[in-house]
Design brief:
With 121 residues, the protein is α+β, with helices and mostly antiparallel strands. The chain has one domain. The strands form 2 sheets. Strands 1, 2, 3, 4, 7 and 8 form a 6-stranded mixed beta sheet that branches. It is elongated and about 55 Å long. The termini are far apart. The relative contact order is 0.19.
Length: 121
């Protein structure tokens, strides 16, 4: 009986420990990171995702980009990271042709609602 009690105690301790220290759970749950940088936008860098600037994808519409193109501006906003498909398993159709999936392999940093200040015209 003593061994059964000890075994039960050890098992309950392990279960409790594994629930509080799950390695797959994020250890640091901080708020989204705020960034601020200066750049000059070029309408030629516009894609369907947004416009690329200094390693970020800014979510601006075409008219905004056209108006700001060539001007030095200050961008401020929260980063939103879109996780990439790091390990894409290759898939094939019935004829043996490789099926390509859409998406980027690496993570992409987006600024969904950037604050814009024109520094120089």
């Amino acid at each position: 009986m003593k061994h059964l009690f000890t075994l039960t105690f050890v098992l309950l301790s392990l279960i409790s420990f594994s629930q509080t220290n799950d390695p797959l759970q994020p250890k640091d749950t901080k708020m989204p990171e705020q960034v601020s940088f200066y750049t000059v936008l070029d309408v030629n860098n516009l894609t369907k995702d947004g416009i690329y600037a200094e390693g970020y994808v800014l979510h601006l519409d075409y008219d905004q980009v056209k108006e700001l193109s060539g001007k030095k501006i200050k961008i401020t906003g929260e980063i939103s990271i879109v996780t990439g498909q790091e390990n894409i398993a290759k898939e094939y159709d019935e004829n043996g042709n490789e099926i390509f999936s859409q998406g980027r392999v690496g993570d992409t940093k987006h600024i969904l609602s950037p604050e814009i200040e024109i520094v120089e015209d």
